[in-house]
Amino acid sequence: xxxxxRKMCFHRVAVxxxxxxxxxxxxxxxxxxxxxxxxxxxxxxxxxxxRAEGVRLEKRKSAxxxxxxxxxxxxxxxxxxFKRREAYSNSASLSSKASLRRLVAGSQVPCSPRRTKxxxxxxxIEPNTFRVRGKRYIRDKKKEFAPNHAAFYPFGVDVFxxxxxxxxxxxxxxxxxxxxxxxxxxxxxxxxxxPSYPPTIFQNEHNGEGMSFVFYFKLSENxxxxxxxxxxxxxxxxxxxxxxxxxxxxVDKNVTFRDRLKFLARxxxxxxxxxxxxxxKLMNAYNEKPVLSRPQHEFYLGKNYFEIDFDIHRFxxxxxxxxESCKDRLKKFVLDFGLTIQGNKAEDLPxxxxxxxRLKEIDYxxxxxxxx
Length: 372
Hints:
InterPro entries: EDR2_C. Residues 122-363 form the Protein ENHANCED DISEASE RESISTANCE 2 C-terminal domain. The chain is an alpha+beta fold. 14% of the residues lie in helices and 28% in strands. Helix 1 (2-10) crosses helix 7 (317-326). The two termini are 30 Å apart. The relative contact order is 0.24.
């Protein structure tokens, strides 16, 4: 319903969580792939703290249960020495003694079998359950079920609370050690930044208390075999942030390829939500409608990962108001979420799924702050 709220109001739904910036970084950083890491800012960071001898991140690591029925209340803490990643070689220097207590990525929310109704869990879903632009969409405007293979598949979910938005959250978790020698980063991180403070009409600052729903995906083992060449090329354009020329009137314009990124979200259990007649009508009308994520998105490219942040704090007042009205019912939602790249030309079709995941009745009040 987080995503449906935006679509209901202005056909724009998306997601966000909070921002605590602790590393002073330049606006453009070169990474191992030869690409640039853009939009890495630190407006809310104390420069003196960044130069301090140590920066610590409080981390709670919950063991993933061997069976879905086991709850994740056991917690382990792992202190790792904090070493700057090569992607941040030009960032503000930190002492070699500095350490960071980092949570293992995906240790907060357990995975459950697809057909199991286990609250506070997630599961994988088939890509072909989403409807996308078909091969002949330019001519017939018809949508079809997506091909049954995605570029990335989920391996974990975290939920973090925070007094401010957390941008570029991959810096603060321990990602798996995987081979990063390919053209496409082996890990995709999706950070949905969701505000918990009430919206105001004349809101100047788009930051404050909220939560981050963080999804972790790994590159498909059959990436080069299953995905069509046009989709592989579009993924690389998305990662590089290429500029493309759009024909228009009276003049053509140049836009970033990343503006084609769009998400699809659907509430699976509408009948369980006890909606009013008006809410039911709106939900049926806008459920699973694709939404371009621009301009409320940011991208970060690390040594072995690509992160996409969706900033719901920056949504319009009406969209935020819609989200606020359903916030207390989020814990009852079974929500499917997916990403694709919009196909604007015949050679971009059919659209394929970049990634997808199912969230089952996630109650964000069960989770704690990502402690620094």
